[in-house]
Amino acid sequence: MPRTQPIKAARGVRDILPAAIPLWREAEQGAADVARRFGYQEIATPVIEQVELIQRVGEDTDAVAKELYRLEKRGSQDLALRPEATAGVVRAYFEGGLNQGPQPSRLYLIGPMFRHDKPQKGRYRQFSQFNVEVIGGASPGFDAEVIELAGSWLDEVGVRDVRLELNSIGDAKCRPAYLDRLKDYYRPLKSRLHADSQLRLERNPLRLLDSKVGQDQPFKSAAPKITDHLCADCAAHWALVRRLLDAAGIEYEHNPYLVRGLDYYTRTVFEFYPGGARGQQDALASGGRYDGLAEAEGWPSTPGVGFAGGLDRVIELMAVKGEPVGTRPAADVMVLPDGDLAVEAAEVARICRSVRSTAVDYEPKSLAAKMRSANKLGVKFVVLLSPADAAQRTARLRDMSSGEQTDLAWVELPTRLA
Ligand code: HAM
Fold it and tell me: 108 - beta bridge partners?
């Protein structure tokens, strides 16, 4: 039965049309080039993972609690579309035996992630990330390295006006005592906090610090800062990361309220924003250290640090400042058969393709109409094919920029087009 309304794409997802593909390729190629320059190898993991693995990202995390795309259960496994890649890359590092090789493993991954978030500009339900992970390295040198790599990628693709925010959120040794202090501070203020924040106070008090609601803001500045309460090891790590960034000439801002939305972080956390913007949904790239994640997944305790860049957001910025896209024609050469010459036109196209991209206009329309659409497409050459030409295996080649026309044999086409 015919439908009254055409079927549209699912909400919050986008098609990348041919005109936008060159920018995507540039952003991805830039990512791969920079990653390789820093000695990282590519890894690809499945877009489906066991829900149990994903929950290790943090059950109070929005991406797990509210935004997870769970699949209908088939058989014994509970599966979902990955909301992020770090948990899966850590899993693959152990399952694939990379933990047995030289350490650390420097890995990168480019691919789609899925979160059932409220769609808006820059926030999609399917989006692409450039992930960089160093697994099996505890030194602050790796923290500074992935931050430098993220900055180099943004620079390489032409996104230069960025702001880097940095913080340390301690580890399992010092964070519990800090969280007690934070709760002690916020408890008397509880009734004045937003309802969501009231719930977070006991469950996940760190998230009170990155609350975006206006009602919570007046209380932040007097809240204890975690960087004032780090244990000796975390304090030394924090100092060294900053020293390394200073030495590399990388500017950053210490944001004591930066805590990140995923629960697995320890010590270093960071976010890159476009110059001027603030707030989590605008981050272009973000990450941090996750020394407890491997153990939370059931593997031997192994340190790790990394980040993910949001390709959709970075490409939106590239599109604003970059060259207009969509100017490249799909093919250099268009074969225009005059009449019912599909077999012959296909053969001519096959010959031309040995030297240039070539397409055929098979539509049953006049030669003049075909010329008009070839012109609109911006092709460099057309090959006009009449029934008399076809019978003799000849054609007329027209250079679209000069208007020059040449009659020639099919076999001469490659040399003339090269
Ligand atoms: P995340 O902050 O959740 O971290 O996401 C990283 C980046 O992905 C963000 O900075 C943003 O650019 C982009 N992004 C996130 N959600 C969306 C969305 N709905 N639409 C468009 N872009 C989005 C992680 O995913 C961590 N796994 C990063 C990491 C790697 N940490 C350590 N290693």
Answer: 42, 132
- In this predicted structure, what is the pLDDT of residue 65? 79
Please give the structure tokens belonging to residue 160. Answer: 């230069």
Superfamily of domain 18-174+230-321: Bira Bifunctional Protein; Domain 2 (3.30.930.10)
Cα–Cα distance, 150 to 152 (Å, whole number): 5
Rounded CA gap, 147 and 130, in Å? 13
Q: What is residue 322's predicted lDDT score, i.e. its pLDDT?
A: 66
CB 115 less than 6 A from any atom of ligand 1: yes
**Ligand 1 atom nearest to CA at 306:** 33
Would you call 350 helix, strand, or coil by DSSP? helix
| Predicted local distance difference test score (pLDDT) of residue 384 | 97
- Among residues 238, 311, 308, 234, which one has the least CA distance to residue 271? 308
CATH class of 333-417: alpha beta
> How many Å apart are CA 106 and CA 135, to the nearest integer?
7
**Domains of the chain by residue range:** 18-174+230-321, 333-417
Q: Is the CB of 165 under 6 A from ligand 1?
A: no
Helix (H) or strand (E) holding 178: helix 175-186
284 ligand 1 Cβ < 6 A? yes
CA 261–ligand 1 middle distance (angstroms): 9
Determine which residue's CA is closest to atom 31 belonging to ligand 1. Answer: 287
Beta bridge partners of 109: 131
Residue 277 DSSP label: -
> What Å distances lie between residue 87 and 133, 258, 259, 263, 410, CA to CA?
11, 21, 18, 12, 57
Below-50 pLDDT ranges, the chain: 326
Q: Report the predicted TM-score, pTM, of the whole model to 2 decimal places.
A: 0.91
